[in-house]
Amino acid sequence: MKNRLTIVMGVLAAFTPVMSSAQEVSGAATLGLAETSSPSGVPDYSAMSLDGKLDVTYAGVLSFGANISTGKIDIDGVSEDLSATIIGLNAGFPLGSMWNGGAYYEHAELDVDGLGSESINSYGLFVGYKSDLMALELFGGETDGDSLTGTGVDWFDIGGQASFAVGQAGEVGGHMIRSRLSSGGVDVDLTSVGIGGSFEMAQGLTVFAGLNRAEIDVLTGDVTTFGLGVGYDLGAMVNFPATVSLELSRSRIDDGVDDYDSDTIRFGITIPFGGAKASPMNSVASAAMAPNRNALTTVINSDF
User: Fold this and answer.
1) Domains: count for the chain
2) CA distance linking residue 245 with residue 89, whole number of Å
3) Which of 32, 59, 189, 248 is the most exposed, having the fewest neighbouring CB atoms within 10 Å of its CB?
4) What is the CATH number of the domain that holds 63?
């Protein structure tokens, strides 16, 4: 926990001088609680999470972004807790009319009480297009980590995401990301594909849904997660800019022989600022429309 707090404080400290002179700042934060009912023979678990994002535009030219997802999972009947943290940073600049490009860095860490932790770092380049009607991004990069050092394994990430406005009140989007591990001429691909959407209804209500599917090509089977939720804007009732949300999701693991389902109920409180609009960041819809730039961490976000 101390390591994660140090990283978060470092990110905030790095952005402080930029934010103080920025022309535009927007973002959101979601505090979430989840309860998962697992198939027979597998323990149930609960989770508490905190997700946040920050977008800063400086001098109308340079743009900076940061995102964080951190959570703690308590597994029934197991004394050790499982913690995960994913932090991303990016910086971009205009390439022309509505086009932009830049670089990104992401750090992911998994920690098990008493057993230690493992972490990976992803970095690369991206190019994007953004207008009032749509946004598009393509990226490519690589991932490394302590457990990969000296193994001769290379990890490459490539993918894209797109979103489209549906009138003034809706948005749909999706992604396709492939992480390839290569060693000695042998390739193993982890692929994540997702689609999601949200629609603002009358009287402060929002409906959102998402679908994500992940597979490893050398294994038979896949993991598919679907989520459907509703949010309510408290600003429609009281003068407080927050949205409460409730999502029901199901993850199906297909091992090529049988299917195993786990059902999750997620509660969230999302506080936006700077005019930002987004699905609750602890939802399957958010993971599908705003993924990480790594297939593994995207799957973790959509399922947990």
Assistant:
1) 1
2) 27
3) 59
4) 2.40.160.40
